[in-house]
Amino acid sequence: MQSQLLKKLLFLFWGFCLCCISQAQAINGKVTGENNTPLSGVSVQLQNSNKGTSTDTNGEFSIAAPQGATLVFSFVGYTTLEKKVSGNYLSVVLARGSDNLLSDVVVVGYGTVRKVDLTGAVSTVDSKVLVNRPVNNSLEALQGAAPGLVITRSSGQPGQEGWSANIRGFSSLNGTNSPLVIIDGVEGDLALINPDDIQSISVLKDAAAAAIYGAKSSGGVIIVTTKKGSSGKLKLSYTGLYSINQFYGIPERLHSWQEAEMANISRENAGQADSWSQQQIGWMKDPDSSFYQNPSNPSVVGFYYDLNQIPIVMRKSSPSQNHNLSLSGGNDKTQYLFSMGYYTEDGVFKMGPDGTSRYNARLNLTTKFNSILSLDSRLSYTQSKTESAHAAVNGDNALLYGIYQLRTIYPIFLEGTDDTKYASTGSGPTTYQQLIDGGYNDIYQNNFDGVFTLKAANLVKGLTFRAIYSPHLQQYNVNNFGRTIPLYSYDNTGTPQVATYLNNPNSIGKTRQTVLSHDVQLLADYNWDIEEDHHFHVLGGFQYQYYNYDNTYAQARALISNDIPSLNLSSNPNVQPVVSDDIENNAWVSYFGRFNYDFKQKYLFEATLRNDASSRLAPGHKSQTFPSLSAGWVLSKEPWFNNALGFLDEFKLRASWGTLGNAQLGKQYQHNYDYVASLSNGPNYPFNNVATPSLYQSALPSPGLGWETIETINGGVDLALFNSRLQGSFDYFQRNNNNMLIVLNEPAVLGVTPSTTNAASMKTWGWEASLGWKDKSGQFSYWANFNIGDNKNKITKYLGNVVYLEGINTAIPGMPINSIFGYKDQGYFANADDVSKHAFQDNRTGPGDIIYQDVNNDGKVDGGIGTAANHGDLVYLGNTSPRYNFGTTIGFEWKGFDFSAFFQGSGKRSIMLYSLSVVPFVNSWRMPWEINTDYWTPTNTDARFPRLYAGGTQNTHVSSHWVQDAAYIRLKNLQIGYTLPRLLTEKIKISKARIFFSGEDLLTATKMWYKYYDPEDPNNVSFNYPFSRSYAVGLNLNF
Amino acid sequence: MKRNNKIYLRLFAIIIPAYLLSCQKKLDQIPQTSISDANFWKTTNDLSLACNYLYSYLPGLAANDPSGNPYPYQDQYSEIAYNVNGPNAISNGSRLAPATSGEWSGFYRLIRAANNILEKSVTVAGDQPTINKYLGEARFFRAWGYFELVKRFGDVPYIDRTLTTSDTLLYSSRTPREVVIDSVYADLDFAAANCPMPDAQPSAEYGRIPSTAATAFKSRVALFEGTWDKFHSEGNASKHLQVAIDASSTVMNSGKHSLFTYAAQQDSSYYYLFQYQNASTQQNYTYSTNHEIILPRLYGQNQTNNISSHSYARGSVTDGGIAATRGFIDMYLYKDGLPVGKSPYDSSLMETSTLTQFRNRDPRIGMTIMNKNQWYPSITGIHLYQPGLIYHTRKYGTILDFTAGVSFINFIVIRYAEVLLNYAEATFELNGSISDGDLDATINLLRNRTTNNNPALLPQLTNNFVASNGLDMRAQIRNDRTVELAFEGFHYWDIIRWKTAENILPNTLLGPKYFPDEMKNVPSAQYDPNGFVIVEDASKRSFKPQRDYLWPLPTKELGLNAKLTQNSNWQ
Predict the structure, then answer these.
(1) Dihedral sign computed on CA atoms, order A135, A138, A140, A146
(2) Count of CB atoms within 10 A of residue A545's CB?
C-alpha cells in the first residue's frame, strides 16, 4: 500500500519535472536602476529552483523559464524584486535602498522589529561569522563579532575552555555578569548549540531592549533564533571541516645542568650552600653517566639525566573534525528542519585521555492546525564527552606543572628495566605515568531542550495569544577513575621492587547531576492602528521559571581490580565509601507589559514595566518592579532633513532609560539560600580511624538580601550613506548598579564570613561604534566591517570598611573593579650602596633585586595599614578588564572565489603574572626556563629578570615589573573559498559546492613581553593548557 | 469559528489564574541538603558534631594549623632549626608587618566556633555531664585560641560571644593579656572538671580532650605567663608560676600519665615515641599503649583509608624542611653530664669525621639527628645516610612515609615530658632553687628514660653536680627542656619568654662541619674559619628587643578597627 503511494508520488514528481522542462523557454530581458542606467551583475533566479544567471555589462540577461514562473532579481544596495514571466522579454527596474541593515528585521524580546523601528541598543551578528570555522562552540565564534560583546576563555583544554561572554563590562560585583542567553524564546546555553543551526543572533545591550527579560538580564541579552524550514522541496546541505590545531606558548626548558648551575647561583646569592657539585653537574652533561648506582649497595642510586619531558608528552599539533548535515522543507501547513552535527577534537597530549567530542541533533517543526492555532516545536539534543586525565591538568602542582617546572634530571623509567617499570624518583614529574596509566576523568553531558509555542493568532482582530512551554533536561555525569601506578626502585640485591604508588588507593568517583528546569510563558499581543499613521502595539505577559539541580556523588576506594572501575568492587571493609548530594532549587515569577507607539514610523516610543520575584532573595525582599522607557526619531524621514542632508539615506537618533534587577549571586546552583542560617560541613576528623564528620557555621546569613537595581541610560545614532553602502551606528551608555550586594569587610575578630548586604554602588559607562561598507562591481563584491567598544567602571559607593591590599582589589571606592595595586618598579639595584641609600624593602634585598618606589618617602617600602589614607607605597597598576575591544572583517567574492579575514583584539588590559612562575627557585624545585636566562648580573644589568635568588620572594611582589599590558590583535579567522561552477556541479545534482580553507588564530601581535603567557590567558593563571592555532580545510555542499 | 474563540478565552480565564497562584508558592524555598541552624542544636550528638570541627584547629604536621605550617616549624623561628629552602624572616628579623595574618583570623574563627557551641548549647537536651563534656571541649579550644593569640600579639580583643556585624565588640580595643589569661584559666578549669580522665575515655573517643590535657595545657600557659612577666618585668609572675606548679603537679599526681618506654628496645624509647606503634601497619599509639601522650593530633588511617594525612616525613624531615643547626648540636651534653666547653669529651673543634660529633653524648642526639649509615631516602633515591652539609632531623620521619609521600603519624600536641619540664622550671623560677627530689621527679626521669637507667651515658642532674662543676641550674633546666622538646615547636617561644632571644638570634647560624674525605659529592658552600657551613651569616640576622618580642598585628585589621593599636615599633 505504502509503496504504491510512493510510486504514485514519484510518478507525479517526475511528471511535474517533465512539465517544467517541456514548458521552459528562453526569456530575455534587461535590468536598469535609477535614470535608466543598466545594472550589471544582478542575480536573476528562477524561484523555487536552483536555476539562475546574472546580468551582463549592458544589464541584459537570458534565462530559460516557463510562462507564469517567478523570477527573483537581487542586487546589493537594491530592493529585491520578484516578477512573473509573461512574454519573452522582461524590462525590470530596481529601486535603491532597502537591502540594508536598517530595514532588516531584528529579533528582540518576545518578537521582531524592523531595525529602522528600534529604539534600544541592539546589535545583530551575521550568521556568516558563525559557520565554516574550526571552532567547537558558538561562543568561540562570536568573539569580536559585535561591539560591546566580549568573549573570553580561560584555557585551551578541549571541551573545558571556559568560554564566557560579557556585554558592556561589569554590571555587578556579583555573579558572572554573563548575559542572559535566549534561544528560541527561552533561556539556554550558547556553548551547547551547534553554530550551524543558528539563523540569527541579536545582542540586546541597554535596559530598554533587555527590560522585557527582567530579572536575569542585567548583563544584557543574547537572543539566538535557530533556523527553520520553509515550504518548498527538500533541501539538503552538508558542511565538513578537517583541522590541524597547532599549540603555542609552551615554555622552553633548559638542560638539566643549566638548571643546576642556575640553582647554585641562586643559592649563593641567598648566602646558602650550593645544591649541586661540579662533579654532579658533569654527570648531567655526560649522557653516559646520567644514572649512578653504588656497586656495593645497588639500592643506592642517583639520577643525573637531561630529560626534557615536554616533547615526550606533548605533541606539536592535533586534529579536529566538524561535520554538519541539514534537511529542510515543508508545505503550507507544516515546515520542518532537521539537522545533525558532529565535532571532535584531540588535545595536546600524545598519550592518555585528552579530547572532546559532541553530537547535536535538532528538529524544528511548525504546524498550522487551523486559521487560528499553530504550534511551533523546537527540539534539540546535545551529547558531549570530554576526556581528560584523572590528575588535574592545569594549575600549580598539576600535570602540566610537572613537565613545565620540575627538574629535568629525572628519568621516566627505571634504568635496566627496558622501559617497563616506572622509576620512583621522589621529585620528578609523573605526567607521563598519570596520562598513560593513571585512569581518567570523563565528563558526559546530555542536554535535551524543547520549546513548544502554541499560538492563537487573531483570536479577535489584532490579538494574538502565545503559550510557551520549555522543558530543559541536563544530565551531567562524571566518571573519575584513579588507577594505581607502581613506581620502582632497587632493593639491596639490585632487583627492582615497588617503592611507592601513585593514586593509592585506586578509586572510582561518579558524579550524577540532573538539572531539570522549566519555563512557562503566557503572552498576549495586541496591535492596532489609528488611520495609516498611528501604530500601537501592546504586549502583556507572565513567566514562571523553576530550576532544580540534584547532584549525587559516590566514590569507592581500594578496588579489587585496578582495571575495572566499579562502585561494587571496593575490597576493604574499613574504607568507607564517600557519598554526598546537593539539591538546589530556585523559582522566578514575573509579570510584564510593553507598549509601543509610532507615528508614521518616524517618531518611535516604547515603555516596559516588569515585576520580578525570586526565591533566592530574603522574605520581604523577593519582589520588585522595574520600568523602562525609550524613544527614537528617524530624522531622515523628515523632509527638511532630507533637503539639507540628502546624502544620508538613513539617520536615526535613539535614547533610552531603564532599570533592571539582579539576583544572580553566582551560578544557578549556588547562593540559593543565602538568607537562611545554615551549617556547613567541616573536615572529617579520624577519631578511631573513622572519618567523623563535623559541622560549623561558615558565613552569617543575609536576612535583608534584596534585588540589585541596575539603571541604564543609552543614547545612540544609526546612519546609512552612499546608497546605504556605508552603514554605521554609535552608542553611548551609562549604567549604575545602585543597590549592589557586597560581603562587608569586617574585623577578623568576627570569626566568620560576614553576611551579604545591599551596601554598594557602581557605575559603568562606555561607548560602541560600528561601521560597515559593502559594494559590488560586476562580479566583484566586497565588504569591510569594523566594530569597537569600550567601557570603564568605578565603585561609586561602598558602605562599610575598605581595604587596600597588594594584588587584585575587587572593590575600592572611586576605583575600577579588580584594580591591581602593587609597587612601582624603578629598575634594579646596581650595588650595595644603592640598596642602603634606598628605602628599606626587605632584609634580603641586594644588587640585582627590583627597586620599588618609596612613594610616600617614609624610608620603607610597604603597604601601610591598607586604608585609603595609608596604603603605603602601593600604587594603582591598572585593572584586569579589557578595554577597546574590537573586531574587523574584510572580504570579497569574485567569480566563485571568496576571501574573508577577521581580526579581533583588545586595546588595553592589565594582566598580573603568576608569582611562582615569574622567577625561578621561589621554591627549590621550581626550575628556570629559557626566558629566565636573561637574569641580572653585574655585567647584564638591563636584564628582563632580577638576579637569581633561592626563595627570592622579594622580587615576586606585585609590581609594575610583572604587570603586563595584554593588548593584542589577532587574525581570528581567515577564509579562502572557491565555489565550483554550477555547470559542473549540476551534472551531479549538486546546486552548490564550495571548498575552502579556514584558519583560526593564525597571527597575533601583542604588547606582552612575557612570551609563555597568551594575552587571552586569565589573570594570575598558572601552567595553563596551551592555546592552539587551527588550519582547516572544508567543504560545503547543497543538494 | 467565533464560538471556538469564546471557548478558548473562557478556558484561559479559568486555567491561568489557578496556575499563577501555584507558581507563586514556589518562591518559598528552603535548603534540602544542608542543616539550618534553627533545626540543629537539639541533641548531644549535635554538640559532638559541632565540637568535631574544633579539632581541625589542633596543631599538627600538615598545614592545618592557622600558622599555615606544621607546628614544629615554629622552631625555625629560633636558632635551633632552619629550612634548607630558605631563611626564616622571623628568625632573622627581616619580617615586615603583614597585611593579613592567618594566625590572627584563624584563631578568631576557632574562638567564634567555640563561642557558638557554648551559646547554642542552651537548647540542647540530654545528659548534663555529656553536655558539659562538650562544653569543656569548646572551652579548651577557646583557651587554646586565646593563648596562641596572646603568645604572639600580647593584648588582644577578648570576644566571649558570637558577634554580628552590628555588634560594638567588633570594634573593641585590645584587652590586657592578664585579663585574657585569667579567662583562659577559667576555661581550662571548666574543661578539666568536665572532660573525662584519659582512662575513662572509650577507645573510640581517643583523641578527644581529656581532663589532663586541659590541666597540662594550663601549666604551659601559666609557665609562659609567669616567666614572661618575670623576665619582661610585667604583671604578676609568682601568681602564674604558682598556677603552673599547681597544674603540672595535678597532672603528675593524677597517676594517669607516665613516660613512654619502648619495650622491644628500651634504650631507644625516645626515638620510638615519635614513630608508629607498628610501622608496617601504620598503626598509631593509643592511651593504652602510650601514657605519655596527653593530647594527640590524629591522622588516619593509611593510604587505603586516607581520612587525614600529612607529608611531614617527606617534605620536612627528609628534604630538610626542618634541619638542625650546629648551635643545637652543641646543646647536647656529653656523657659526663657536662656541656660543650666544660667536658673533657668536648671535641667540637677537633672533630675528624662526622661520627665524632655524635660520640660520647646524651643519647638523644642520635635519636633526634640523622647519623651516618642510617637508612635515608632523598630526592635522588633511597640510600644509607651519607652525611652532607645538612643535619637532618628524625622526629616523625619514617622511610615508608617518605616513599609514599604521605604520612599518618599522629602529632603529639601535649606530652607528659613537657609537664615534668614545666614543673621543674616553674618551681625553680618561683623559688630560685629546686630540690634534688623535684629534679628526680622531673628532669632525671627524662634522662633515665633516655639512657635506659644507665647513668654512665648521662648522669643525674643534682644541686651538688651543678655546684661542683660550676654550672648554672637555670641553664641546665633550660638546656634539658630544649633538647627534650626540640623540633616540637617550643624553643622559639621559650627564648621569647626568657627574654634571651635578643642575645641568641642575631648570631650566625651554622650547619655541619665539612669533611672533604667523607663528603665527596657535596656542593660548594661558605664555611666559617672552623670549617662549619654558614647557613646564615650574622650580618643578615637581627633582633630588635624593643620590637620583636611581640608580633606585628596584621595591618589590614588596624585599618578596619581604629581602636586597635599596633605593637611597639612595628609602625
Answers:
(1) positive
(2) 22
Residue in A257, A506, A520, A685 to test binding to B, most B beta-carbons within 10 Å:
A685
Residues A181, A568: Cα–Cα separation, whole Å: 41
Asked if pLDDT for residue A39 goes beyond 60, the answer is yes
Helix-then-strand count for chain A, H and E: 12, 52
Q: What is the pLDDT of residue A992?
A: 86
Residue A469 CB burial class (10 angstroms; 0-12, 13-18, ≥19): middle
How far apart, in whole angstroms, are the C-alpha atoms of residue B2 and residue A597?
29
What DSSP assignment string belongs to A841-887?
Answer: --TT--TTSEEEP-TT-SSB-S-TTSSSS--TT-EEEEESS-EEEEE
Buried b (16+ CB within 10 A) or exposed e, A705-738: bbbbbbbbbbbbebbbbebbbbbbbebebebbbb
pLDDT value for B378: 62
Distance CA A829, CA A918 (A): 19
Q: Are B33 and A585 in contact (CB under 8 A)?
A: no
How far is A151 from A138, CA to CA, in rounded Å? 11
Q: Which three cell numbers mark B158?
A: 577578648
DSSP state of A422: B
Alpha carbon of A322: minimum distance to chain B alpha carbons (Å): 41
Ramachandran assignment for B352, one of left (phi > 0), alpha (psi -120 to 50 degrees), beta (any other): alpha
Report which of residues A359 and A272 the model is more confident about.
Answer: A359
3-state secondary structure (DSSP) of residue A574: coil
Q: Is A95 exposed, middle or buried (0-12, 13-18, 19+ CB in 10 A)?
A: exposed
Distance CA(B404)–CA(A133), nearest Å, equals 48
Q: What is the pLDDT of residue A17?
A: 40
Mutate to test the interface with A, among B45, B560, B569 (most CBs of A within 10 A): B560
Residue B168 to chain A, least CA–CA distance (Å): 11
Burial class (CB in 10 A: 0-12, 13-18, 19+), A577: exposed
The CA distance from A110 to A538, in Å, is 11
The pTM of this model reads 0.84
Give the phi and the psi of residue A342 in degrees, each rounded to 5: -140, 135
Judge contact between A404 and A371, C-beta under 8 A: no
- Number of H helices and number of E strands within chain B? 19, 11
Nearest to B380 among A277, A303, A581 (CB): A303
Instruction: Please give the pLDDT value at position A8.
Output: 46
Question: Among A72-86, A592-606, B97-111, B493-507, whose mean pLDDT is lowest?
Answer: A72-86
Task: Look at B206 and A465 and tell me if their CB atoms are within 8 Å.
Answer: no
- Which residues, at least 6 apart from A12, have a Cβ–Cβ distance to it below 8 Å? none
* Contact across the interface for A749 and B382, Cβ inside 8 Å: no
Mutate to test the interface with A, among B380, B398, B407 (most CBs of A within 10 A): B380
Say if residues A884 and A788 touch (Cβ distance below 8 Å). Answer: yes
d(CA B429, CA A627): 77
DSSP string, B11-75: HHHHHHHHHHHHHHHTT----SSS-BGGG-S-SHHHHHHHHHHHGGGS--SSTTSTTSS-GGGGG
Smallest CA–CA distance from B15 into chain A, residue = A522
Bridging pattern class, strands B300-301 and A623-634? unpaired
- Residue A861 Cα, gap to closest chain B Cα (Å): 10
Cα angle at A536 between A534 and A538, to 5 degrees?
Answer: 175
Which residue has better confidence, A53 or B235? B235
Identify the weakest region by mean pLDDT among A265-274, A754-763, B451-460.
A265-274
Please tell me if residue A486 touches chain B, with a CB cutoff of 8 Å: no
* Crossing angle (nearest 10°) for helices B473-484 and B443-451: 50
CB A190 within 8 A of CB A138: yes
Sort A813 into a burial class: Cβ within 10 Å, 0-12 / 13-18 / 19+: middle
Q: What pLDDT is attached to residue A100?
A: 43
